[in-house]
Amino acid sequence: MSEERIREAAKVVLSTSGADQLEVTLLQENQRLTRFANNEIHQNVAHEDVQVRVRAIRGKKIGTAKVNSLNQQRLKWATRKAIDTAPYGVENDYFTSLPSPQRWQPIQAHFPSTEEVSARRRADVVREVVDKARRSRLSAAGALSVRTRRFGVFNSLGVDAYHPSTWVRLTSVVSSQDSSGYSEVGSPDFECVHPARVADESISKCVKGRHPVEVEPGRYDVFLEEYALSEIFNWLAWIGMGARSFQEESSFMYGRIGENIMAEKVTVWDDGADPDTFSLPFDFEGVPRRKVTIVERGVARGVVYDTLTAARGGSISTGHALPPEYSLFGPLPLHLHMAAGPSSKASIISSIEKGVMVTRFHYINGLLKPREALFTGMTRDGTFLIENGKLTTPLKNLRFTESMLRAFTNVAEISKERRVLGGDDFSTFVLPAVWIKDFNFTGRTEF
Asked: Which ranges carry the Metalloprotease TldD/E N-terminal domain (predicted)?
């Protein structure tokens, strides 16, 4: 689907009369997915879709409609539907206008070589992972996803934004009878995905994790690898780094702007213009994404906004609007970064006298007490005891229950290595590994 065709579709919507203002977002996506388990490919599929969302403004009321077609009649139907339903909506006192055009910086995020990757090439990548696992007498599972997106936002005030992108994500879980290991890589460029490295990491974790033992729950120093940290930040973004939760006073940031909420070593920001991520230079309203510092040297600095929450808060949009059907969640940061530290991961581990290394988490629940960022969840795919600066004993998985505000005030060290993770939607993370002291494990498992 060409840029020209997307623009032609936008013109059909915007030329329709009957609304004070009109907006249309168009997202065309082609995803090719190769999934594998038990050292075999078991699913190889391709999915292509187009999503057209229309917002019609009549006074302070908004009507919306969505259609999965660029057919002119379907586009006209969706536009008329949005216009006709607007009067039946509830007036929004905070709505003033759709955004006006603003300049944004294009990003090179589309790699034709990625878009042209064949099913055979994907199978060859998976083969590298599977062959290495098989030679180690282990079982590999995972997925290789290749996405191409063409995204446009246009409105009757002159917003005209178009951005093509590609993204590749390879995940690998390698298992034995009593252990497992995980690895992941993501990039807009298929040539930057090295399956041998992914296989080696997940295999190494699995082998080291054989014959795990139980450890008593309690407070331990923890070394959270980047994968574990990404699970934490995914929840932190959702419950507290957007303006909606902040204005509803449920965010852990509420009432704490300008105060220390984390250790001085911690700086967190959102930057959708980073070309190493699944970048997006503007949001679903066509507003340029600003780089937003959320935590600076441990001090809470701010949250992200869309036009509606910005009007309510007397601020300006930072370019973080989600699609209309997700407006319930308000604006969210989709490209979170955490600043690196000065030390390598190996040197940090060597400084820990006694602790637990966590590869990743799952089954996290971050809704226990959002104002305290109280989370619970489980470790998985590689949990190890650290003794006298060395990884010694593989551990059975543990359950944690901990306030992330408390945990991040206890950050002792941050690694200089960072990974780019995620990309299932538009969200990606650029994160280091961290050493956190006195982390609370409250339970254990049988595996």
From this structure: 32-86
Considering 171, 205, 239, which residue would you say is the last residue of a domain?
205
| pLDDT the model gives residue 143 | 98
Distance (Å, whole) CA 260 – CA 138: 46
Q: What mean pLDDT is predicted for residues 29-57? A: 97
Q: Which CATH number do you get for residue 147? A: 3.30.2290.10
The per-residue pLDDT for range 135-160, each reduced to its tens digit, is 999 999 999 999 999 999 999 999 99
Q: Is the pLDDT of residue 424 over 90?
A: no
Question: Would you say 252 and 371 are in contact if contact means Cβ atoms under 8 Å apart?
Answer: yes
